[in-house]
Amino acid sequence: MKLHSSTRGGVSDVTFEEALFTGYAADGGIMLPVSIPSVNKTTLEKWRQLSFQDLATEIVSLFISDTEIPKEDLQCLIKNAYASFSVPEVAPVARLKNDVTILELFHGKTWSFKDVAMSCVGQFYDYFCSKRKQHYTIVVGTGGDTGSAAIDAVRGLEWVDIVVLLPRGRCAKIQELQMTTVLEDNVHVFRADGSSDDIDLAIKPLFMDAEFRTRHRLTSINSINWCRIMVQIVHYFYAYFKMSSDVDSPVEIVVPTGACGNLTAGCIASKMGLPVRLVCAVTCNDIVSRALSSGDFSLAQTVTPTLAPAMDIQLPYNMERIWYIFTGGDTALINKLMLEFESTGSVQVPEALANKISAVITDAHVVSDDTVTSTMARVWADNSYLVCPHTAIGVAYSHENRSKDESIPRICIATASPAKFKEAVDAAGIPWKQDERVTRLMSLPVRYEDMERNEDWSDILRKKIIAINTPLC
Description:
Elements (H helix, E strand, L loop, with lengths): L3 E3 L9 H5 L10 E3 L7 H7 L4 H10 L9 H11 L11 E3 L5 E4 L9 H19 L3 E6 L3 H10 L5 E8 L5 H8 L6 E6 L3 H13 L1 H6 L2 E2 L6 H18 L7 E6 L4 H11 L4 E7 L4 H8 L1 E3 L20 H8 L4 H14 L1 E3 L2 H8 L2 E6 L2 H15 L5 H12 L9 E5 L7 H6 L8 H7 L6 E3 L5 H12 L5
Parallel strand pairs: 4-14, 5-6, 5-8, 6-7, 7-15, 9-10, 9-14, 10-13
Antiparallel strand pairs: 1-2, 3-4, 11-12
């Protein structure tokens, strides 16, 4: 049996199924596998020619025991997950001028990279819930893309309800509409007057209340959920194979970064034996950049809204997973660091740990809104190719570091379709032709509830969850 444990050591011997349905662990930590499998060069070479779907089956099967999901079932679930993608290869590669190469991860139904993992998570939820005949309530905080991808993954499922909180006025209008226009009875959307971090602070007490969490079978489908991270590992291997000439050659992968879930997946891929170097690209909300460059993991006074709203985060909870990975599972140190951070809002990353991380995450790059729009405009002028503002943050790094090490190929992760970000495309001065999918979305009816600053959001959520789980007379 392949088991999982909490980053803080208080929860252990957890099966994949149990980890799938765990948000924050009872000890306040988040789940990771007890051991990270290693992949040798022979296996890497064998995987090189696999389709994305088949590669996903091989990698995911390393983390799930055959007794929980037989490989034949796993293959079918992954095939079903990607059946709705608009391109058969799932993640095509665009090769542009000025040595810019982009891995397009936005061809799922909600046009963001979250679909790549979330579509699999939805399949796994349905697989286990249908087998057990047990109902679960998913609670998700989102900066934009996570919420819509989570909703699409589980909308209409018999054994799952989903409650989503989005930051009102702080995500793109299209992102909001992809959530508020879903009218299935198992979907419940709240627009909160605050930031993504404010939303996370309202959600965490629900998971820390063990009795409430257990009674209502609460779970999370954002990157707190280990399954999301697990599936995201796949696109690092896929990108590597698209860029490398042999299994000994390193590849640099530029990762637009918010809560660090995607970055965590890249770190695990490296630990598995994939010869990648990672670059973290962020907005002016730069806690991740400061932590990586100087060890300063401290909250800013406010979260600044930018043109890349999904990355406007000052509470990147997956950093805890990254520390765990690079300390070899030192739960005592993780507890010490997180206790200090949670009590003071600031902690200094030990130099020895910082050095281990920097061997894999080799650079951290902060990008302003002005650079985002100029990058979008430059890519359009050079290639007649649109990038979203989040992707532009990664491409900006590539533009500014073309000669850094020309012997190492570089690929930037494209996290979302530009069709979702009319405001940013307009700001970049790029001729805009509205996508037909957006036009259809704008005409649909909406359903949501608003949360105001003077309200107790955790209490509102509790009442909603109780109502969901109370049978009608």
